[in-house]
Amino acid sequence: MSEANKAVVRRFDELFGECWRTGDVDILDEVLAPNFVYHSPGAPPDLGGFKQSLLMVGAGLHDLQYTVEDLFAEGDKVADRIKWQATHQGELMGIPPIGDSVRGTEKHISRIAEGRIVERWGQGDNLGMMRQLGVVPPPGQGGS
């Protein structure tokens, strides 16, 4: 069961990369259940909201490259740790493009049922990304 569940998350990663390149978020329906719930700070929790947030982020960050650093499974859950890099070439959450590469890390736990991801928890380094985008100053360089 653990290997089959890991295969679902690997397929999600493949489709996610394709989705990012093409903008076709509906290809994720192959691995995301219709009742999919996403748990991540500030992100919409349902499948439609998840897809819309991908389109919004994809409009700002181009040339996404990411690597799965770790992948673990136990029971119906799969955990992964990824690193990513993209170029900020479009507006992102109201932030004008800087034209430079930004990098980040994320950790996820996906719950699998009947061969699909029904629930996913995500936590990324949002503070690190905001620093790279110039929205938040590095430690010790902020205003008083």
Question: What's the short version?
Answer:
By secondary structure, the chain is of the alpha+beta class. The chain is built from 3 helices and 5 strands; from the N terminus they run αβαββββα.
Explained architecture:
With 144 residues, this protein is of the alpha+beta class. It has one domain: Nuclear Transport Factor 2, Chain: A (Roll). It has three helices and five strands; from the N terminus they run αβαββββα. It has helices spanning 2-22, 47-60, 126-132, and strands at residues 32-39, 61-74, 77-88, 101-113, 116-124. It has a five-stranded mixed sheet with strand order 1-5-4-3-2. The termini are far apart. The model has no long low-confidence stretch (mean pLDDT 94).
| Topology-level CATH name | Nuclear Transport Factor 2, Chain: A
Please mark out the parts with pLDDT under 50 across 5 or more consecutive residues, or reply none. Answer: none
Radius of gyration: 16 Å
Biggest sheet strand order reads 1-5-4-3-2
SSE topology string: HEHEEEEH
- Mean pLDDT across the residues is 94
Structural class, by secondary structure, is: alpha+beta
Determine the number of helices (DSSP H or I, runs of at least 4 residues).
Answer: 3
Please identify, by name, the CATH architecture: Roll
Number of strands: 5
Helix content: 25-40%
* Number of domains as seen in the coordinates: 1
CATH class categorisation: Alpha Beta
Largest sheet: 5 strands, mixed
Instruction: Give the termini distance in whole angstroms.
Output: 54 Å
> Strand fraction band?
35-45%
What overall geometry do the principal axes of the alpha carbons give?
globular
